[in-house]
Write a structure and sequence with these properties.
about 190 residues, alpha+beta, Peptide Deformylase, two-stranded antiparallel ribbon, 3 helices
């Protein structure tokens, strides 16, 4: 197991549609293990293949809900059905999210309240999860990564303007910039 560098916005793999996984082998199991270790070191609640430089349709997630239920898994070649997004402005306290590929920034973003995730795990076993609230948000965020979309791409003005300004100020928005969880402190 190894902690992998996380790419920062601007790298082409983050802005491209990821390829389906066809080989369910030891290399895939190592990638899954490394992604979990990386996500936990970051720390985060989800991590997609493109974020660690792998243009593959895979994400991992680990989140504990208000009832202390741990939702942890690997979604490979996922499909996601999302309820319509409510109309109106996102609440800055309840609907703000961040991204490990835009470290240290958080902005409000309205997402669908319900999501149904269908995927296979690392053993190619199918599963389905009906998610609400934050788990639904996590699935939508990670699924977007597989389609070359970062949450900043979905922000409404003036938050989109603020995100672009933060990206420029940090010197991001170009290829081959990454950070290493457990080594780099990007919140300073």
């Amino acid at each position: 197991m190894a902690v992998l560098p996380i790419l920062i916005t601007g790298d082409p793999v983050l802005h491209s549609i990821a390829s389906p996984i066809t080989n369910f082998d030891d290399d895939l199991r190592v990638l899954v293990s490394d992604m979990f270790e990386t996500m936990e070191a970051a720390p985060g609640v989800g991590l997609a293949g493109p974020q660690v430089g792998r243009g593959l349709r895979i994400f991992v997630f680990s989140w504990t809900d208000d009832d202390d239920v741990l939702w942890r898994g690997t979604a490979i070649n996922p499909e996601l059905w999302i309820s319509p997004t409510r109309v109106g402005e996102a609440d800055e306290d309840e609907e703000s999210e961040g991204c490990l590929s835009i470290p240290g920034e958080r902005y409000p973003l309205r997402r669908g309240d319900l999501a149904i995730l269908k995927a296979v795990d690392a053993e190619n076993k199918p599963f389905e999860i009906r998610a609400e609230g934050w788990l639904a948000r996590i699935f939508q965020h990670e699924y977007d990564h597989l389609n070359g979309v970062l949450y900043a791409d979905r922000l409404d003005h003036p938050h989109s303007k603020a995100a672009l300004k933060a990206i420029r100020k940090s010197g991001w928005g170009r290829p081959a910039i990454s950070w290493m969880p457990g080594v780099d402190d990007l919140d300073e």
